[in-house]
Automatic annotation (TrEMBL):
Span of domain TLC: 81-222
Bilayer topology: Multi-pass membrane protein
Organism: Monosporascus ibericus
Full protein name: TLC domain-containing protein
Segments traversing the membrane: 12-32, 105-124, 145-162, 174-194
GO biological process, one term: lipid homeostasis
Length: 228
């Protein structure tokens, strides 16, 4: 087994729970303005999405024989082992396939969602400097919807993590396929920033929105690829 398969998912969860609040704190240090608070959170979200997407894609590529359709597995095996010296590769149902690194990636995502949920709650409680009762985050984004999203997905991933610690997890590669859709988040974040702070640049607003929808749809199709 490769060394990356020995990553402890509990340590990964703890690292994410520690790192993201620290990064957010450093990003908003000093005088906190509404724009700085929200833009910092969105930037961290976009960077995290890139990290989790590329990590998931790399692990799915490494574990292709456990989830890819038979025709693709045959082409890939012929390319990697043209002489057939390794013999036939074992195949597993995508639900039963296991991936220690995949479990660590899920734990990292879970830690991020918990940290970001805390950031949303704190932002929702913070009022403007002139004492207005309406929160900074509440005036700028649908934080309640996003908060419920984080709570729901985070709870599901936390339950998965508990099962993984017991060696009873199922469908980790399915979860990684779903994580690929995070690659669309940076385009969505850029679209949000341009629409809110640079609305005059209509062409870029349109292009980023199109890129967001296109990448999201493409990654959904890649996810369906694993069930053929």
């Amino acid at each position: 087994m490769l060394s990356i398969d020995r990553i402890n998912s509990n340590a990964t969860l703890a690292a994410a729970l520690t790192l993201y609040p620290l990064v957010f704190r450093l990003a908003v240090r000093g005088h906190v303005t509404p724009k700085r608070l929200i833009v910092s959170r969105e930037a961290i979200s976009a960077l995290h999405s890139l990290l989790i997407s590329f990590a998931s894609a790399a692990e799915l590529y490494r574990q292709y024989e456990k989830w890819a359709p038979p025709a693709y597995r045959g082409r890939r095996a012929a390319k990697d082992d043209p002489a057939g010296a390794r013999g036939p590769r074992p195949t597993l149902d995508i639900i039963d396939a296991q991936s220690p690194l995949g479990n660590a990636i899920v734990a990292w995502e879970c830690g991020y969602l918990i940290g970001d949920l805390v950031a949303l709650i704190l932002g929702a409680r913070r009022t403007t400097v002139d004492g207005q009762s309406r929160s900074i985050v509440g005036r700028s984004m649908n934080w309640k919807l996003l908060g419920w999203h984080h709570l729901g997905i985070g709870s599901a991933l936390a339950l998965f993590h508990i099962q993984a610690c017991r060696g009873k997890e199922k469908g980790v590669l399915v979860v990684l396929l779903m994580f690929l859709m995070n690659i669309s988040t940076p385009f969505g974040t850029l679209h949000w920033y341009l629409a809110k702070f640079r609305p005059a640049n209509q062409m870029m607003v349109l292009l980023t929105h199109t890129a967001y929808l296109a990448t999201y749809g493409l990654c959904r199709q890649i996810g369906n690829f694993g069930f053929r």
